[in-house]
Amino acid sequence: MSPERPRSRRRIYIGLGIALLLLIAGGSAAAYILSSQGDVSNPNVAFRPEPTQTAAPDPTKAPKGKDPLDNFVWADYGYSKDRRRYLPASKLLRPPFWRRWSVTGKILLEFGPVIGGRSLYLLKNNGAVYAIAKKTGRVRWKKKMGYLAAASPAFAHGRVFVTLLKRSPGTNAGRVAALSAKDGHVLWSKPLPSRSESSPVVDGDRLYFGSENGTVYAMRTTDGAVRWTYRASGAVKGGIALAGGKLYFGDYGGRVQAIRQRDGGRVWSTGTHGSRFGLAAGHFYSTAAVAYGRVYIGNTDGNVYSFSSDNGRLAWRHHTGSYVYASPAVAQVPGGRPTVYIGSYDGNFYALHARDGHVLWTHRAGGKISGGATVIGDIVYFSNLSAKSTTGLGARTGRKVFYMGRGAFNPAVSDGRMLFITGFSSLYGLKVKKAR
């Protein structure tokens, strides 16, 4: 064999190797460009100003012998059915706070409770449902409904509705159930063909939620009978937002969709350009918020999106430095502008103008922000998963006004008098410190 032939082959192999490296480098560059794609703003997409939201009851103005907060309801994840995560509470509900009670444990609390009158209703990650007296922290009842869960319950009609990721040790499928809010008695329970971590929302006699096989359900609240289903393009992990007779959600197929509440018929479906060579979109784990004629939602491609709620047209896109699993809070606090509040895995917490997406302020948290923000009064709260902490910032300024070394995912709910902080595995009831 001629000694020249092996050299020729080596040159060919070297050439092919260089070409392959260039292709990989080019692909990596393309992926980088796409994943760091610039912000987009389409000012022609309609933005509808809204009237000021009704404030929560002021406990200092209650008639003698009556407490309006005994009937207060925070029924769904995100407070309102459109999932804005904004409670316009009294200015009196501001730091400093003192800890009135705590319910400690070792089980992860990925999602916070809802409020139904005098009780908090909490679903732990082990599938146990708790009813907790909101004034004292006393556990009224608890009920084991499954073996894995990652959602908030919904409260309506004297019932607590829950979705589960895993109903039993031997199956990788979930459950949806309704319990009596009074004593935890199971009123009905339905097995699901796949897992669900979609915090349900109730409207009238209908219960709406998504599941990992891409099915969105509308069920009758009285007995769990399925009224209709809709099949999305991927897993529906976030909660379903309800506004104007339409249901809004993102999925793991990289699409945001609007369907009719009445029958599940599609109104619109829109995707993103994606971050992997432009061929696939990121995942929507975030629960959408609907406000101002827009749908706001985060994506694992590192972007926060705003779409028209009428037709799905992209209004704006703002790129962060990493995944956006978090759910946005949308509010216009007194003296402020319409704002979207959301955290990112890049360690920053953002306040974005709701109309065009430009940055109003940022706060460097220095850790992963995975859960949704909550605006209570004029303070926006978020949890830092890395630091296991909860921070409160002035909603207009971004200035830190509250810090607690407890937290993980979804930070807080309130009845307008007390602040309830969800830690990594414990729940805390805080009250305002009275001036001496």
- Beta-strand percentage? 35-45%
Task: Classify the oligomer.
Answer: single chain
Reported for the largest beta sheet, the result is: 5 strands, antiparallel
Computed CA radius of gyration, to the nearest angstrom: 23 Å
What share of the residues lie within helices?
under 10%
Which segments are poorly predicted (pLDDT under 50) over 5 or more consecutive residues? Answer: 1-36, 274-279
Please, could you describe this protein's structure?
The chain has 436 residues and is mainly β. Helix content is 7%, strand content 39%. The protein has one helix and 35 strands. The protein has one helix at 4-35; strands at residues 40-41, 73-74, 86-87, 97-103, 114-116, 119-123, 128-133, 139-144, 154-156, 159-164, 175-180, 186-191, 201-203, 206-210, 215-220, 226-231, 241-243, 246-250, 255-260, 266-271, 289-291, 294-298, 303-308, 314-319, 329-331, 339-343, 348-353, 359-364, 374-376, 379-384, 389-394, 400-404, 412-414, 418-422, 427-432. It has a five-stranded antiparallel β-sheet, with no helix packed on it. The longest helix is centred in the N-terminal third of the chain and has 32 residues, at 4-35. It starts with a helix and ends with a strand.
